Amino acid sequence: MNLALRDIRHNLGRFLLTCLGLGLLLGVALAMVGIYGGVVEEALSLARGLRADLWVVEGGSRGPFAEASRIPGDVREAVARLPGVTPAGSLTFQTVEARHAGGPGGNEPPSEELVRERAGEAGRQRIGAVLRLQVVGYEPDRPGGPPGILQGRGIGRGRLEMVLDRSAGVPLGAMVEMANIRYRVVGFSTRTVSTGGDPLAWITLRDSQDLQFRLNPPAARRAQQGGGGALPQDTVNAVIARISPHADPAAVAAEIRRWKHFAALTAAEQEQVLTRSVVDRARKQLGLFTTVLLLVSAVIVALIIYTLTMDKMREIATLKLIGAPDATIVALVMQQAMLLGAVSFAGGAALLLAVKDNFPRRVVLGPEEVAGFGLLVFVICLVASLLGVRYALRVEPAQALGG
Amino acid sequence: MSPLVELQGIAKGFGEGEARVQALSDITLSVAAGEVVGLRGPSGSGKSTLLNLVACILEPDEGVLRLADETVWQGRWAKADLRALRRRAIGFIFQFHNLLPFLDATDNVALAMTLNDVPLAKARDRARALLDYLQIGKRAGAMPAKLSGGEAQRVAIARALANQPHIILADEPTAALDSERAQVVMDLLRRVAREQAAAVLVVTHDDKIFSRFDRLVSLRDGRIEGEMRPG
């Protein structure tokens, strides 16, 4: 006869209400874990999507994602000539505030009437809406392009074309304006975002270098056009290389590090930079929130179980007096704590999984994260129930006697 | 008949030094199988302490306590052994029935048997039979909150009888009942004592039921003041 279950069934309303509150709390804590997973996945999505074995960046920097890196565009040829390197490609990265500049088929800038007319298109960015994009400039047919095309096509050799992450919400064929130049969206990439969660846009390297030039301050632009500028226009932020399976990326990286003014990172080192530096603050913040929420959950479980046990003081004394062993009493308290945790966790996790796609930030929760969190909740409930167990074991059977 | 409850020269005190209170002194008492003995006395006379001693909750400072042919405490009884003895040999009846509110009448009775390793199905069958024996079988599925005071006390008696104990200890079993129901409960206890050859020790203040005891023992200031046979 399971006394814990029978007691819960007797007070089902109170138990479910308690589970609802605790479930919401655990759901928020689990959301923090999922948001961290999303931050890491988004941070790594670009680096992984490019499938680079080696990153060549400016000497003394840790790559284009953690620090500024500018290197001459012709470095790509030097890298490509190294033994073991199969293809190499130059890349630029810049975060740009762009503008949705017209629907599919429209080359002209939208009139105010058109903006008003299309303003209501459900699920899409309105014409004229400002988009925050991470623009990647790459050389078509070389490493560095979009990891996959979901719809439409990739960029050919043509100029002023763009492959965009679908999450930007701009329809295929639409125009996107950056620094007064309009690019046509010719394809959607598989989901890839920047470390900050901005959708990625791929354009050709030449277009991106033009864009960089146009986005420079006017004085720098004038100086550069006059030949006296400090920055040549053929600069890139990184060169990526794929390495033959028979070569060692670390050995190639060591070779490049011997060059003046350049640094090289293997794919693993790049991911380490991204997870340790770029998302480190997010990890600490989300970790702190998760820890606090779990501590609050533990205190709540402990108080609930303690109160439930106190409410049953006379019943526990009676059980002891009629000869129930301590194991029966301990099981009564602990099973209730476990059931409270299990039902709350199941409710919180189900709720989160149902609504996670509507979160403003990406929530990534795999079976391992959910199972690990469940195990943590189990341990918390086990520890939190000890207070109630201690109380129950101290109840004297004599308390059952007398009025 | 040989006594099932036997106390010889029992003494029990609480506290140390100046603050020490002697709750019981030189108590010698026995209750035989089939006998219903009442224990009465004013507040502070030592009734509860005596009941706790017989229930193996308190250890006497002096004297010998024998329950169902076993000498308790001497030879260092562990807590678990005492609980096992209570499960096996003693049935308890309380002033306010103390039924578990989340179990129905049948399971309240069956629980006592399952603690003694009786399989649940068999325990439930025996519980229903016991409830029938105590003429409350029609309320077998009722939760304690739905039972009247008299019904709840009869379920509590059924629970006390569940493991066919040799000894039944009752703490003011009629205090919460009206006169008619109190008589019914006492008749049941007498019947149980006779039919199951159990020793029944009842602590009571209730003078309406004094006549239902085989013997009535009076306590005052921790000592036995006197004994009478109401019949």
From TrEMBL, chain A:
Question: What InterPro entries does its record include?
Answer: ABC-4/HrtB_transporter (IPR051125), ABC3_permease_C (IPR003838), MacB_PCD (IPR025857)
Q: What is its main location?
A: membrane
Gene Ontology CC annotations of this record:
plasma membrane
Name all ABC3 transporter permease C-terminal domain ranges.
Answer: 288-397
Q: According to Swiss-Prot or TrEMBL, what is its membrane topology?
A: Multi-pass membrane protein
Keyword terms, alphabetized: Cell membrane, Membrane, Transmembrane, Transmembrane helix, Transport
Indicate where this protein resides in the cell.
Cell membrane
Transmembrane portions of the chain: 286-308, 329-353, 373-393
Please state every residue range assigned to the domain named MacB-like periplasmic core. 16-258
- Classification via PANTHER family: ABC TRANSPORTER, MEMBRANE PROTEIN, HEMIN TRANSPORT SYSTEM PERMEASE PROTEIN HRTB-RELATED
Q: What is this protein called?
A: ABC transporter permease
Annotated source species: Dankookia rubra
TrEMBL record, chain B:
| SMART domains noted in UniProt | AAA (SM00382)
- Supply the InterPro entries for this chain: AAA+_ATPase, ABC_transporter-like_ATP-bd, ABC_transporter-like_CS, ABC_transpr_LolD-like, MacB-like_ATP-bd, P-loop_NTPase
| Gene3D superfamilies recorded | P-loop containing nucleotide triphosphate hydrolases
Example GO CC term: the record gives:
plasma membrane
Q: Which GO terms describe its molecular function?
A: ATP binding; ATP hydrolysis activity; transmembrane transporter activity
Which residue stretches, if any, does this entry annotate as coiled coil? none
List residues of the ABC transporter domain: 5-231
Output the PROSITE patterns linked to this UniProt entry: ABC_TRANSPORTER_1, ABC_TRANSPORTER_2
Task: Give the keywords, sorted.
Answer: ATP-binding, Cell inner membrane, Cell membrane, Membrane, Nucleotide-binding, Transport
Keyword Signal (UniProt): no
Which PANTHER family does the annotation name? ABC TRANSPORTER ABCH.1 (PTHR24220:SF86), IMPORT ATP-BINDING PROTEIN (PTHR24220)
What protein family does this chain belong to?
Belongs to the ABC transporter superfamily. Macrolide exporter (TC 3.A.1.122) family.
Protein's UniProt name: ABC transporter ATP-binding protein
